[in-house]
Amino acid sequence: MRSQAFLVALLLALAPAHAAEPRPPSAEVPLDEARKALLAQGWTLRETFLTLDDGTRESQWGDAGLLYRAGFVEVERCTGTGANYCTFNYRRGRSCLVLQTKGEFEPGRYEPAVVQRLHRCPSKEALHPENGSESTPPGEPSG
């Protein structure tokens, strides 16, 4: 019984320190909350440049375009159908992170929730606009 009481006391003592840390993105966390936590942890937004057949950037078309115009420039693309999955890219030093969300976006009403967090870099094609003006920094992983 004493060992259980000690364990509970220890957990309660550690709880305030843990609660002060930003909550990492995980399932069912709204995108905006997950993004704020990432930025507080030193991650930066990573824009991509994939295009559709007509030359329109995927990040600026359909539901991805709504997110992009609302300031989520790290959106890569959205499925636009069914559960409406979207992909968002971040970078911290030489590390890459992708958040995948599910759900509709309507400013002030609906916000997608993070359903997956992957340590993966965007493809090499996604990082280079058609004119080739952006390049991957030396030593940074790509693809």
Task: Write structural notes for this entry.
The chain is α+β, with helices and mostly antiparallel strands and 143 residues long. The protein has helices at residues 2-20, 31-40, 62-69, 124-127; strands at 29-30, 44-45, 75-78, 85-92, 95-102, 113-118. Strands 1, 2, 3, 4, 5 and 6 form a six-stranded antiparallel β-sheet that branches. Strand 4 (85-92) and strand 5 form a beta hairpin. The longest helix is centred in the N-terminal third of the chain and has 19 residues, at 2-20. The radius of gyration is 19 Å and the shape is globular. The N and C termini lie far apart (54 Å). The model is unreliable at 2-23 and 131-143 (pLDDT under 50).
Give the helix tally. 4
What's the pLDDT, averaged over the residues? 79
Biggest sheet, in brief? 6 strands, antiparallel
* Shape summary: globular
**What helical percentage do the residues reach?**
25-40%
Work out the strand percent: 15-25%
Which residues sit in consecutive blocks of at least 5 with pLDDT less than 50? 2-23, 131-143
Distance between the termini: 54 Å
Number of strands: 6
- Quaternary structure classification: single chain
- Succession of helices and strands: HEHEHEEEEH
C-alpha-based Rg, rounded: 19 Å
Instruction: Please identify the structural class as seen in this structure.
Output: alpha+beta
